[in-house]
Structures are given as C-alpha cells and as structure tokens.
Amino acid sequence: MIDHSLVKRFRQEVGDRLAHQRRIDQANGLPTMTGEDERQFARALISQVLEEHARSEIGLGRTPPTVEEEEALAAGIHAALFGVGRLQPLLDDPEVENIDINGCDKVFVSYADGQELTREPVAETDEELIELIQILAAYSGLSSRPFDTANPQLDLRLPDGSRLSAVMDVTVKPAVSIRRARLGKVFLSDLVGNNTISPEIGRFLSAAIGARKNIMIAGSTNAGKTTLLRALANEIMPSERLITVERALELGLDQFAELHPNVVAFEQRLPNSEGQGEISMAELVRRSLRMNPSRVIVGEVLGDEIVTMLNAMTQGNDGSLSTIHANSSMEVFNRIATYALQARERLPIEATHMLIAGAIDFVVFIEKRNDYHRGGSLRRYVSSIREVNGCDGRVLSSEVFAPGPDGSGLPHAPISCMEELAAYGYNPGGW
After folding, report:
1. What is the pLDDT of residues 53-68, one digit of tens each?
2. Which helix (H) or strand (E) holds 242?
3. How do 378-391 and 362-370 pair as beta strands?
4. What is the residue extent of each domain of the chain?
5. What positions does the domain Bacterial type II secretion system protein E occupy (predicted)?
6. How many angstroms separate the Cα of 421 from the Cα of each of 208, 356, 416, 428?
7. Ranges assigned E (strand) in 278-407
C-alpha cells in the first residue's frame, strides 16, 4: 500500500521545483523542455525528493522507506504528475475495460472477461477527486475545459486514449466513468481474430472502404463502435488526407504517422464562463469541408451536426465514416431523422430520409452480449449490415448481412454495388 498523503505532498514539491526550473530556463532564453525531457527531469527530481525524505526520517530516528516502498512512491508521484494519480494502476492493467466511480470511495471495475469487481478508493475525499479531474481537464485535449459548479459536465480523452465522462453538482457525489481504449492501433484482422467480425465481413468492410462507401457504425453504449471505426479508418490508404471531427479527441488517428501521415483532428470547443467562444460540431464539420479532405470522419453523431455531415457525404466526400447510438441497424434512420429535427435546418422526416438515401451506403450494427453468467465472457460482434438502396417516402434498405444462429452476421441478401466491391477484392460465397 502506498502512503497517498506522502504522494500528494511530494507531487506538490516536485511540481514546484519543475515549475521553478521552467522559469529559470525561460529567463535564460533556453528552449522549452520537450515532454520527454520534462519527464526525465521529473524522475531526477523525484529521486532527489525521496532521498531527502529518507535522510530526514533517519535524522528523526525513524525507519526510512524500503527500496520497494521508494519505488512505489516514485511511481505514484510520477503518475500524479503526468498520469491520473491513483487511477493509474487501473489504467495500466490491460484487462480493465471500464471504470465507474461513484464518489471517491466507490470504484467499480469491469474487465475484458466480463467480471465486475470493486476496487480501493481513488481519492481521500470527493473534493480531491474533483481536483484530480480538474487537473486532467486543464491539460487534456486541445483547450482547457472547466469542471466546476458552473460547468458540471465534462468529457475528455486521457493520455492513454481512454474516454472520461464526469459530472458533479447534479449528483449527490461526483461521478466519473472511464471507458478504456484497449485497442488503439487496431485492424480488421484483429477484429476477425477476436471474433468481433467474421472473415467474410472483414473482406466486405475492407472492400467497402476501398470503394469509398459512406459507412455509419451503429450500436449501444460500449458496444465497440469506436474500435470498429478505428479499424475501418486503418484500411484507408496512407496517401489520403483525413479530417476527424470529435466532441473530445478520442480516435487518435494522428498518433500513427506510418498509417495516416496527413490527419487534421478537430475538437469541439465549449463556451467559456461568459458563454462565449463555443465552436460546435456542426461548425467544425462545415469547416472540415474547406480543408481539402479526402475523407471526413465524425467520431460520434449526437445532435444537429448530422445534417451537415450528411450534406458533406453527398458533396463529393465519399468514403466518410461516423458512429451513432442505436438499438438496431433499421433504427438508425429514425435516430438520424430525430437529430435532423433538432438542427437549425429543421428538416422534416421525408427530407431527411431523402438525404440519408443520397448520403449513406451502409449501416454496420455492432452489439455486445454478457455471457459470463453462463461461464462465458463479454462478447462483441457485428450482427447486421444494411445497404441503403434509395428512398420512397422512407429509406429503402436491405439487410445484406443478418444475424446467424450465434448472433454474428451472415450473408443474407444480394449487394447492389457488388461490382464496385469486387474491384477491391470482395467475392462473397453464394451471391
């Protein structure tokens, strides 16, 4: 067990010395330390502070920390400075899937095998938990994001790519949910390997990306939509220029220059305390069209940006991708129509369905099932793929892959654009 009061104290001390060194370097006209240089310097400062602490304990006639205790303290201080404090061990565990925190002392962790366990507190008090989130909000993303009484909601991406959502003052205790990015650099072959998709669906999706089909990925919360979106994006040729638009940076396609050397990542900007400076998702999608994109990727559609995105898909930006919450592949069309009613264009349902028919080529539905109570584990799989065929008062579509006996998608109906897909290597059996 780590003495977290010592970690907090030493974090402050090391942070002060680090800030002092920055001021000295600036005064002497020296270049700003890179992130890695700063981490290396911080490690030296941590060793220095721990050595001073050991000498002080000996001087007071007390037993200094053991080598193991010093190593644990050093890791805790470093995590508090550059990571997420006492959350770091959970984020370092590759098997952790999601972390839910209801106040500082109630921590629930779900694992990749479907287990859900309680863990030790991540802060001494709710105030300390809020302070940790505020620090993360100040340094994550492209701009500082407030988290206080006036701004009680927060969404951001952690340094490891995980998604954090937090609320305060609208709940009895501050509540935090962290959804892990366990597969950052993921390919369709990885999803075939873990049975999320069948080899045939993998070949189909690869061909659909090559043929520049517009694809909407649908599913429930935590079904694996973002992971599938990353895998599809990694099928795009490195020569293409990608623009990503997100509420909070999450996809991280720009982190893999060997796969996507030409990426611009847009992040929604929230209004400041005076209610000014907001840049909405819809505005960012419109702006992305002026940035010479080969494809536009919208991380998640949750509102009025849907009309702008559908317009983008019909204006020559073929091959665009996005995700949306829905309970089935068919429900996606009604969900889009609902969002379109909220947009400033106030599109009626009939007009929205015409826009959908001209914009979206395929809807891919991914779902999850908890089988661990029957001796299995949490399972994610693509169960349905629907092709949009046109509009006749409503969206016309056919389910080209439908759920089989185990729920996974199997070929079900002919694909109208088969010749285009065949040009990119897709040759299905039976059609």
Report:
1. 999 999 999 999 999 8
2. strand 242-246
3. antiparallel
4. 1-82, 86-182, 188-422
5. 89-348
6. 6, 21, 10, 10
7. 295-301, 321-325, 362-370, 378-391, 395-403
Q: Which fold has domain 188-422?
A: Rossmann fold (3.40.50)
Q: What is the pLDDT of residue 35?
A: 67
Which residues lie across from 107 on neighbouring strands?
Answer: 101, 119
- Which residues does 181 contact at the CB level (< 8 Å), separation at least 6? 160, 161, 162, 163, 226, 250, 252
167 pLDDT more than 60:
yes
Q: Is the pLDDT confidence value at 374 over 50?
A: no
CA distance 230 to 239: 17
> Hey, is 217 helix, strand or coil?
strand
CA-to-CA distance for 326 and 253, rounded, in angstroms? 24
Task: Reduce the secondary structure of 117-169 to three states and give it as a string.
Answer: EEECCCCCCHHHHHHHHHHHHHHCCCCCCCCCCCCCEEEEECCCCCEEEEECC
Q: Report pLDDT for 274.
A: 67
Task: Return the structure tokens found at 99.
Answer: 């972390």
How far apart (Å, rounded) are the C-alpha atoms in residues 46 and 50? 6
Q: Which CATH class is domain 86-182?
A: alpha beta
Dihedral sign for Cα atoms in the order 98, 322, 386, 400:
negative
What DSSP string runs through 6-35? HHHHHHHHHHHHHHHHHHHHHHTTPPPPPH
CA atoms within 13 A on the CB side of 111: 14
pLDDT, tens digit (0-9, with 9 covering 90-100), for 354-371: 999 999 999 999 998 876
User: Distance (Å, rounded) from C-alpha 169 to C-alpha 248?
Assistant: 22
| Contact residues for 88 (Cβ-Cβ < 8 A; gap 6+) | 75, 76, 79
What is the average per-residue pLDDT within 134-154? Answer: 74
86-182 and 188-422 have identical folds = no
pLDDT tens, residue by residue, 284-321: 988 888 899 999 999 888 887 888 888 878 877 789 99
What whole-number distance in Å separates Cα of residue 82 and Cα of residue 149? 25
